[in-house]
Amino acid sequence: MELIYRSTRNANETATASEAILKGLANEGGLFVPDSIPALDVSIEALAQMNYQQIAYEVMKLMFTDFTEEELKHCIDSAYDKKFDTPEIAPLVNKAGANYLELFHGSTIAFKDMALSILPYLLTTSAKKNGVKNEIVILTATSGDTGKAALAGFADVPGTKIIVFYPKHGVSPIQEKQMVTQKGDNTFVVGITGNFDDAQTGVKKMFSDTELAAYMNEKGYQFSSANSINIGRLVPQMVYYVYAYTRLVANGSIQAGDKINVVVPTGNFGNILAAYYAKEMGLPIAKFICASNDNKVLYDFFKTGTYDRNREFILTSSPSMDILISSNLERLIYKIAGNDAEKNAALMKNLTTEGVYTITDEMREKLAEFEGGYATEAETAATIKKVYESDNYIMDTHTAVAATVYDKYVEETGDKTPTVIASTASPYKFTRSVMNAIDEAYDSKTDFELVDELNKLSGIKVPQAIEDIRSAAVLHDTVCDKEDMLKVVKGFLNI
To answer: Reading across the β-sheet that carries 160-167, which strands appear in turn?
Structure first.
């Protein structure tokens, strides 16, 4: 049975999986969501015998129903190959009383690799299936990690161009160097004088401009997205949680059917929403613990039922979560509104015009399985130091936010349910913050000296992604005001 995707803001706008992947964003700024989420049709016990690629197929075949088995397996096998530096793709490591799902073993050392390795294959397959002749222009806003992972995924992919916007002063030095040294004739990187929300808003504005779409089509181009607003990014993330659960079964930590909790460091809400969708598919998850940094707009939402972005934007040591407009939350709001596009559209309009919306008590009741928590900068640093000293395990700042929130949750609730924490980036990506947390004396060293010090402390080989940028030339130096994003895009495309 073919699964239909529908816009969160217009019940009449529908798409097949491949059409939704191609389009990225629905009209009127809506997001595509599946009409229903099919149940897993293979037992947990059988999945526990499978590798990452096989589990990916069992999950994605249910969500991408207009792909043939051959097409989908080609996409999966092309994506999850030797670019990952561990054979299991996403190792599950038990440290400090929790199971850390290490999602950073891909070519850009962040969890975005897991979904962005497959998106180019899903997109080019979708283009063929739908007879698209235009060149596809991937427009992406990044808070640091999506950008590099998308650039690496789409570099020199025929029939595509990729333009990434990032906040010029809102990413780590390593994150910026990774992006601005990206090779590929079809890659473009732009620093904007604004924050991530400004970049994301500018990208969404271009997507929803119908006159611009017609003009682009006339010139032989069409936009698509590599952000998690694209269902082709979101669905591959569901695989993490099915995989993690089945590893716990395979290693005897739990029995099939036992419940687990998941903790996800969250900015744009895509990764934790994927876990929620995996539960809808039948995965036994009890609690979704949403971990925020000082930009705790999601924590406040889960505590009060009011989403309010009218607050100071704080730059933190976990920049990928420095976000005040969590795009993917809209998919959850649509669901708890009873899949009522009109009701959801009204709330999203309020967010755009007033910067705030409040859900009903009835909707709030449907969020009982979500817990919000947040970690301050000092708490995040203390957790990095504590876990290094207790378990000789070094985590990045985003993972430390999640670990801090988890510790607080256990202390408050006494809930000892086996827990998976999404470890979303390598500590090598945020060396200064990580090393300073362990000992402030490290602050006098350069970023690459810190890489070598981290290597000495952890005993973990310096990832190739870091070695590659030590002496790489800067290839992208465009900087623009947030108001000039469209002008820059037109300039790149010579239109």
So the answer is: 221-225, 135-141, 160-167, 187-193, 478-481
